[in-house]
Design brief:
Elements: H1 5-14, H2 22-33, H3 37-53, E1 54-56, E2 63-65, H4 74-77, E3 82-89, H5 92-99, E4 106-110, H6 120-125, H7 129-140, E5 147-150, H8 156-170, E6 177-180, H9 196-204
Parallel strand pairs: 3-4, 3-5, 5-6
Antiparallel strand pairs: 1-2
Helix pairs in contact: 1-2
């Protein structure tokens, strides 16, 4: 039998989400269809609010709820943060994990993903060019970035991205200190799943 078009479209769209395949998407759509109308409306409004109320910070790419047409997230707007230090992470959940330590007081830059191989198309998909432009702009505005922390997971993709970013930043010849997390993180592990003590040690022991 052929499923109704709206169900097929739901499955097609939701199966694109990481960790959710067609089978899980099918279970989700049937579960939703058996919920009361009020619950379905809640889900619908939640998705609408994501697209209408959440914006990406123009500096670090962290999603935030925009009020009064702000362009920067709460972290980047905060004058108490050290804007001369940028911690480069792969994804939002890595940033959240580091923030939970309450030890890091600089700002961030979210790449969005990691390099699996170095090609021009892949580099354009990742927020590498915005990091370079942000760095150069800081010197033009006479508020130079002094240190960039490459806080990427010690996986093969993370190591490749770290190597590429390190070379790219050094090629700017702006005398910026480049540090990497200390090897408190297990090889192949991910920043997102590291406990706070491990992350604190990795940050404090960076070199």
């Amino acid at each position: 039998m052929e499923l109704p078009k709206p169900i097929q479209n739901f499955i097609k769209i939701f199966s694109q989400i990481p960790g959710i395949g067609p089978r899980q998407a099918m279970r989700l759509v049937f579960w939703l269809l058996h919920q009361p109308q009020t619950k379905q409306t809640e889900f619908s409004n939640a998705f609408i609010n994501l697209s209408t109320k959440i914006k990406l910070c123009i500096d670090c790419f962290l999603p935030f709820e925009q009020r009064e047409k702000e362009a920067l997230c709460e972290i980047c707007r905060n004058p108490q943060r050290d804007h001369s230090i940028i911690c480069v992470v792969e994804k939002e959940t890595d940033l959240i994990s580091i923030e939970k330590t309450n030890k890091y007081k600089g700002v961030y830059h979210i790449l969005g993903e990691l390099l699996s191989d170095i090609d021009e198309n892949k580099k354009r998909e990742i927020n590498i060019i915005p990091l370079v432009e942000r760095t150069k702009k800081s010197f033009k505005n006479k508020k130079p970035i002094k240190e960039i922390i490459l806080a990427l997971s010690p996986t093969s993709e993370g190591n490749l991205t770290t190597y590429y970013l390190e070379k790219t930043i050094k090629d700017l010849k702006l005398n910026i200190k480049i540090t990497k997390l200390a090897r408190g993180l297990p090889h192949g592990g991910e920043v997102e799943f590291a406990d706070s003590e491990t992350l604190i040690n990795a940050l404090e022991g960076r070199k």
